[in-house]
Amino acid sequence: MEFIENWITQIIYIAILSIVLELLVPSSSLKKYAKVAIGFVIMITILNPLINFLKGGANIEAYVFKNNYFLKNIDVEQISKEAQKQRNNLIVAEYKKRLIEQIKERLVNLYEIEGVEVDVSFVEDLNDKEFGKINEITLSFKSTTMASQNSVENKKFNEEIKKAISAFYNVPLKNITIKEE
Q1: Is the pLDDT of residue 106 over 70?
Q2: What's the rounded Cα separation, in Å, for the pair 62 and 9?
Q3: 139 sits in which H/E element
Q4: What confidence score (pLDDT) does residue 147 get?
Q5: May I ask the CATH architecture of the domain 93-180?
Q6: Partner residues linked to 120 by β-bridges
Q7: Per-residue model confidence (pLDDT) at position 103
Q8: pTM more than 0.70
């Protein structure tokens, strides 16, 4: 940064000096040549860092990494791991959300049951071969949903729902729970 500040300061000084010299030149015929000469000096001053860089005199990479203003306290590997972890959490959350929506939609389509709360437990490790395999499903019906049926019919109806869910999602019957609230 100091290098850039010095460079800009040098350009400003030369521009001020050129204005003063231009005012000191007496005749108009000489002013043309003075302006051209001053223009060349300003142009060389502006291009000087680029010329030094092309000659190999200035090593910008070494300057940046020596001062490394933007690299201080940044652990790229740690940031990458954290981003990967957040991405994985988002994938798992989205999968769970869509799975629950699918189960609810299936219950509405097959049995015309609405207002069901669904909770699912599944393999959440993305690196596991069985990622997404459902371990348990819990369905919660509101008591008004099942109120029109008697106790025996409720049990048969619940068993029918369990069998349908079990067959479709390949979950053992014992891992499907139906609760009435």
Answers
A1: yes
A2: 23
A3: strand 134-141
A4: 47
A5: 2-Layer Sandwich (3.30)
A6: 137
A7: 94
A8: no
